[in-house]
Design brief:
alpha+beta, 2 domains, nine-stranded mixed β-sheet, PH_NISCH_C, PH_domain-containing_M2, NISCH protein
Amino acid sequence: YPSEFLMQKITEDNQVPIHLHVSASLQYVSGLKGNALVEFFHGNIAEVENEELRHLMWSSVLFYKTPNVEVMACVLLSTKAIYFLLDDSFIHADEHQLDFWNEEHSDCENDSFHLSCCFVLKLNDLQSVNVGLFDQYFRITGHSADHIVTCLTRDSYNTHAFMQQLMAVLSLLARTPSPEPIDKDFYSEFGSKNTGKMENYELIHSSRVKFIYPNEEEIGDLAFLVAEKMDDLTNLQSLNILLYVLAFQVNHVEGSAQNTSSLQPKTLILTSSDLFLFDEDYISYPLPEFAKEPPKRDKYQLADGRRIRDLDRVLMGYQTYPQALTFVFDDVQNQDLMQNLTLDHFGD
């Protein structure tokens, strides 16, 4: 340890997504290569001497206690824990986080000294991993509200690579094996006989950590919700969700020093007749076992919706991935798609 292959892999993965801004401290980390990266991990992050760094990933993360603040993080997976090296702007984003971190941060006068917070989730405390629709994100759940983190990879490849590495390091944990199930077959493991309803597919790892994947019913529920917004429940059978992707909506900010763009996280859903943007709650659902009341907002909240037949043209940027798309719609004064949102509480 570390092998040449691992060094090369970690160096390749150590790239900040070009569309996301990070602080100077994380810029420093992203500039490290090979052996320097491993030494940085052991000198500044690792909690015990004999743990090995196995995987590195850059991702936006959300915490259960601060569901509205998405922050950039360098996620480091070792044989003992998952470390989230956070952007230092996270501390000042919301007053509630100061309680969450339970620490006072003094602003250092020395400009060359950069401070980052590191959130640690020990593998022994890990209870379950929920994978989001189409592997666009995943949620890691520990034993309390402080130990629930969602990684918004927005990329099925990154999600899959992390899952593979996580399962591999969990296999190294010495935990007492679960008792054998009594008279249970493969189907009864993830199907409830009482309701006849198929639950989400669960894979129970040998370390007793649950890996929970969405099933077809989640897509069905999403299709029903979309049809409801279209006021078209009659054609629910023929409604197909063609694309579900976590994206950013670009809001152009004028009047600033440079005309900058702010990125608003959105869930884009494309059907055969409409294009929707939703604000989605990626952290609160499904409800953790200790939750005493449902979340304050729904899982999906409609932000915008347009008919494909009103689409005039699509402009494509020439930059590398991630690609910027501009959808130009005809300016229809009475857009009947949105009427039911304002009028449905007046009755028929």
